[in-house]
Amino acid sequence: MNRVLRTWLLGLLAAAVGLLSVERSQPHRVLDEAAPATAFSAARARSTLARLLGPERPHPLGSAADAAVRARILAQFAALGVPAHTYQAFTCNTWRGFGQIPCATVDDIIAEVIPGPGRAIVMMAHYDSVPAGPGASDDGSGVAAVLEAARALRAAGLGANAGAGGLHPVMALITDGEEAGLLGANAFLQNAALRARVGAVVNVEARGTNGPSLLFQTSPGDARLIDLYAAHVPAVASSSLYADIYRYLPNDTDLTLFIRDGFPAFNFAFVGNVRYYHSPLDLRRNLDAASLQMQGDNLLGVVCALSHTPYGALAGGDAIYLSVFNAVLLRLPAAWALPLAIIAFLALALAAWLARPGARVPGAGAVAGRKAALRAALIPPALVAAAVAAGFLLMLIARLSSGMPQPAYAHPVPLRIALALGAWTTTLLLVRAGNVPTAAAGAWLWMAGLGIVAAALLPGISPYFVFPALVAAILLLATSRARGGWEGIWGRMALLLSALSAVVIWIALAAGAETLRGLQLYPLLMIAGALALIGLVPLLAVRPMSAQGRNASAVVSGAAAVAAALVAGLLPPYSAASPQRLDLLYLESPDSGNAASWLAEPVWEGHGTGPLPTGLRQAGRFQRIQALAALLGGGTADSAAAGAARLPLPRAAVRADAVNHGVRDLTVQLHGSPDSDAMMLFIPASAALQTIELRGQHLTVPRGWHGATRLLCLSPDCRDATVTLELAGPLPALQFAEQRYGLPPFGAALRVARPASAMTSQGGDQVILVNALRLQ
Asked: Within the chain, how many helices (H) and strands (E) appear?
């Protein structure tokens, strides 16, 4: 076979296997309404979700729409014959420290799915949405899944008698205020009697509208939990890396607080199509039925498994694991990761020594020279570095041709192709002729060596190195003395299977990483792609191309990559199906006298999404960038004059201002308008905050804290909040603000000027009315 054709066929095979691993990682199973009563049915859950959402309007904490959804949830539990009630409490959550403290009155729903004595298995989801979206997936899908799972459990005959058929009762906890700062979960755990009822928790969430339901977080010491999960669900989608990544993301769920308090726990979510997350497009029609089915299968499966497992049996060590094709969950005790990585490394070194030419042919001479060995050893790190550099160059081309920071947001396929071709081009350029044992040793000893480092420093990611290294160690050791060595038919087969094991694992990881932040994570995607291709290096060395063929192939591949990057940049960055995230704010502040401002924030999770659409910029006459006050969270926004102030500012009064032993006790009465949805209070670092008292919540600043504090009172009843502050420093003025969701009526022209290719996000459009109380 022509060597150029053979090389490209190997690349196409790797691409096909990688695409297969991505496709097989997607859910496909969907049960209709005729499914057995004891099974979870996505069709039944979708019907329930339609009843819960009603008109599909945003229902943030404390809103009338939130109360309406709550009433519909209670009605659904009543229809199932499940006793349910609400638990109302005011709470403040300092789980992220004192820089920003959310507080609110919340109304949780507690349902006795399987009554009985003892600590309960808690099925948990939240019913509030962000102000910008109706929350069909996040987390209406979770609520519907809990209701459908409750129906299935009772249909199995587990509900009427105290724990019949299981060791533990089952409770449903549908929290309020998760989006505002995990407030419903916090209120529940602050109640000692409710907290004492908890034995284990299964939470269902969403950060998108499709994709597999991932087990992305467990409580520490999860080996037994992972075994239960793998044995009791139809399809598995998990990795010990997910929990490690999740720790570093600016995200939390209600389960964060339960894990913090030591409860055994599972956290499930689907995260595909993140472009609709926390947006007006989080609608029921965009929710994938297969994702909902897998979510429900996971929930029902692990709850049934837990119901037959004593809580004491859940204790154990940590595991390392990853799923392959959603069919099998490879797992090992975490303590085995380092020894196995070392064993794989030594076995691969032995295989390379046995496979050297001198070992097969007596007197055939020494092994490859030092230069060849050094070159082989440098190819893997060089491939990773070159792939990242190629990704940077291709992304730069796309951005320059687009003029936008996210050029492939609406049309990611061309840029995906460009990045894949970029990784392939670097592989073609780096691979040189050489003996196969040396090339195989260079490739696989790096994989095993990185496994040793990962196992020692970050065990969660170690399976991605250790598992393919073990596959290669077994296959290459078995064929090291075969006829023809690794250049013979059996050796090449061993090299191919070893390479494909890395392709399956690393390409699936790259595809999963893209769902988190899209192609903006291109450095990580390129690293994963390069690691997937490392196993091909010895195969390409078996019958290497000539220098002329290699250079011509690299030119063709590189040119195709650049062309695809240019296409990605020339396509519209946003569309009606993939809109730009863009919130509009109306701001009044005493700092601007009697003038008001319009603010436009094209931001998604702290990252700019590009300049304002031309029509909106012209309609609002946005001409400058304005720095936002610390009270509003800082940052910048496009700003335009909005004429004279038209709305009354919130008021505040000091009811008590006493100084004792150098510490000032300041009691402030806030007064917002009847239209207020939330109130904000800013305490600068110079005030040396010591404590906060707010509606029975006593918050003490931890020793060592010296920063500013934003106190966010996020329910409508906060419009007349009384806050007592204990301060050790001066506070000449106190900034506070009233927040309203949505634009005022006189902002209709701007709302209309926002094109179909842009939408609100997260907190959505708002009115912010800032005032200050002068104290000295």
From this structure: 22, 26
